[in-house]
Amino acid sequence: MELTLDRLSVTANGTTLLRELSLDVPGGGVVGLVGPNGSGKSTALRCVYRALRPHTGTVRIGGDDLHALPLRDSARRLAALTQENTVDLDFTVRELVALGRTPHNAGNQALSRRERDLCEWAMERMDVARLADRGVLTLSGGERQRVLVARALVQEPSVLVLDEPTNHLDVRHQIQLLSLLRGSGLTVLVVLHDLNLASASCDRLGVLRDGRLVAAGPPTEVLTAELVRDVFGVEATVVTHPVTGDPQLLYALTTHDSGRTTP
Ligand SMILES: Nc1ncnc2c1ncn2[C@@H]1O[C@H](COP(=O)(O)OP(=O)(O)OP(=O)(O)O)[C@@H](O)[C@H]1O
């Protein structure tokens, strides 16, 4: 199912946070949104998971105007892992994951056998099955993040949007999650800070700066030393991954030393 952001603009308190952002995520494709802090990545995603209504422009999902759909209908099509995903109530992991079925079921209807199997599958995939009976408030940041991804998978969406999903995850779980997204067949729009992970996991990248899309295309076209210098203000050497062929960036720490430790 295709996801289309069509000329989205967002303004808050007289400041334009997003300017005419257009971006297409083809059905089954993985598109990464990258850019410096404050460039508008989360704002764009918030328009997609309906935490924010764009002032102008349209988000279309499978051709339909997302904001015109009943919430329940859009939740059947789209799941989100957001920066606002906090867990305040002491559900067990199994209970929280099962909540992913809410858009599909009426009231307090008990889960079917298939749905219970789906929950177990998602917990296995996210490596949290052994935590199933733990209270979510007792989990580490990375464990909780993986539980929230399991809940999103249980929602059985066609489209998944994720805002910095690798936050808190150790390197093994970062790789596992991004491999899962890539092989899932889901339509994925993901905000990532790590440009090397973005390069490895996305078919295409969109680069935001000051709320504008300044580049878009496959990682090999987008991730150039010039772009990284221009947009992020960082010197990077671009090399080709010897196994995958993806562009990867090598950084060197800057060596400025003012010799002062306090202002
Ligand atoms: N309600 C608001 N009023 C004014 N400015 C806002 C408001 N909400 C967000 N902003 C500003 O909009 C800009 C874009 O924020 P956004 O969270 O989309 O950036 P981001 O690219 O996701 O950043 P980060 O990489 O730091 O997560 C930021 O400068 C932020 O301070």
TrEMBL record:
Question: What region holds the ABC transporter domain?
Answer: 3-235
Entries under SUPFAM superfamilies matching the protein: P-loop containing nucleoside triphosphate hydrolases
Q: Kindly list the GO molecular function terms attached to this UniProt entry.
A: ATP binding
Zinc in keyword set: no
Entries under Gene3D superfamilies matching the protein: P-loop containing nucleotide triphosphate hydrolases
InterPro entries in the record, alphabetically? AAA+_ATPase (IPR003593), ABC_transporter-like_ATP-bd (IPR003439), ABC_transporter-like_CS (IPR017871), P-loop_NTPase (IPR027417)
Q: Does the keyword Lipid metabolism apply?
A: no
Instruction: Tell me which UniProt keywords the record has, alphabetically.
Output: ATP-binding, Nucleotide-binding
Entry protein name: Iron complex transport system ATP-binding protein
What species does this protein belong to?
Actinoalloteichus caeruleus DSM 43889
